[in-house]
Design a protein that fits this description.
YmcC-like fold, mainly beta, disordered N terminus, about 350 residues, five-stranded mixed sheet, twelve-stranded antiparallel sheet, about 15% helix
């Protein structure tokens, strides 16, 4: 779903700074004071927690309300997923050398893939030490961002806080972001003329997995049909997507479903490539334990292609076995040849 430039701009302004609370959330309702003799660092404000959902309530725009989930944590990088009800945005944040920055961003990213090891793309500095009033920096689009206050009182449904205020100045607008110690971002306010849009943290939910509805396809050789069903798949922080997908394929929830993967068949690698095609590599058991005629084999491969193609939002899947092109007694794929999503003769199992 494509959004207007205004909505995308709002998401970037409100979400890039979305972050996580620490394990001590039960104390979040207390007033957080700062000792002027204590040197605070970015880590004091950004302590990311696995399997935690952050809920922000918006005012002034339908997309100002959103939720944040932590996809991956890897050393000094964190991948967060933001859903504002209209689209999902994935950002990788890095805390390094006294600078917190967005180092990678993916809009309309409905699939789950670990991007924390990816190279830096269009770095945007969110916060910079020292965390004192007057620290400032210039963004790549020439907007000025600076710490405008370090001890401002902010009241939210989560409690009262002494917060750091960070101001971002545009040509005709500005954004105020407020950070509380041991909590992170508690409020953002976007101001343009007489218009004001705000997002405020209202809830932190611990031990909460990411739930995705994924359409899985299965062959039925006796009816010469491919059936699909929507499965609710749970992802905890740092779960490996290929393993979750593999296990879900093997979970046959209806007698009309034929096997897609045998017991010992495993997914060795799975990712969306820059050419906008899904690449998946299986162990040799995909073929050696398939025990299928040509018709059934074709339906198995189409089921895999349809499932992954739709999950990643593409129409081509490059399927290999042990790193080589797919080759069985019935089907031989040439180097660089892709399987294509085909939803004909596919029926929802209700």
């Amino acid at each position: 779903m494509k959004k207007s430039a205004l909505v995308i701009c709002l998401i970037l302004l409100m979400v890039f700074l979305s972050c996580c609370a620490n394990n001590n959330v039960e104390n979040s309702s207390q007033i957080n004071s700062q000792n002027s003799n204590t040197i605070l660092t970015i880590k004091d404000y950004f302590n990311y927690v696995s399997n935690t959902k952050y809920v922000y309530e918006g005012q002034g725009n339908e997309y100002a309300s959103y939720t944040v989930f932590v996809d991956y944590i890897d050393n000094n990088r964190v991948q967060i997923r933001t859903n504002n009800g209209g689209t999902e945005l994935v950002n990788v944040l890095e805390n390094k050398n006294g600078v917190l920055a967005v180092v990678l961003s993916r809009g309309e990213c409905y699939y789950r893939e670990n991007l924390t090891g990816s190279p830096i793309e269009n770095e945007e500095i969110l916060l910079k030490e020292p965390l004192v009033k007057g620290t400032e920096w210039t963004l790549s689009d020439n907007r000025k961002r600076y710490i405008s206050n370090v001890n401002i009182d902010i009241t939210t449904p989560m409690g009262k806080y002494k917060a750091i205020e960070v101001t971002t100045e545009g040509n005709q607008d500005k954004t105020l972001d407020y950070y509380a110690k041991n909590i992170g971002l508690i409020k953002s306010v976007f101001v343009s003329g007489d218009n004001e849009i705000s997002s405020t943290l209202i809830k932190i939910q611990s031990n909460t997995p990411l739930i995705q509805n994924i359409k899985f396809y299965y062959p039925n050789v006796f009816e010469d049909k491919i059936y699909f069903t929507n499965k609710q798949i749970s992802f905890n922080t740092n779960d490996i997507t290929k393993i979750i997908i593999e296990n879900a394929f093997k979970d046959l929830t209806n007698e009309k479903f034929g096997k897609v993967l045998s017991t010992n068949a495993k997914i060795k690698s799975l990712y969306l490539n820059k050419d906008n095609k899904v690449y998946i590599d299986f162990t040799k058991e995909l073929i050696s334990e398939m025990n299928a005629g040509s018709g059934y084999e074709s339906m198995i491969l189409q089921s895999i292609t349809n499932t992954l193609g739709q999950y990643y939002g593409v129409d081509k899947v490059y399927l290999t076995v042990e790193g080589s092109e797919y080759s069985s007694g019935h089907i031989l794929m040439n180097k660089g040849e892709f399987f294509t999503v085909n939803l004909q003769n596919c029926f929802e199992l209700k």
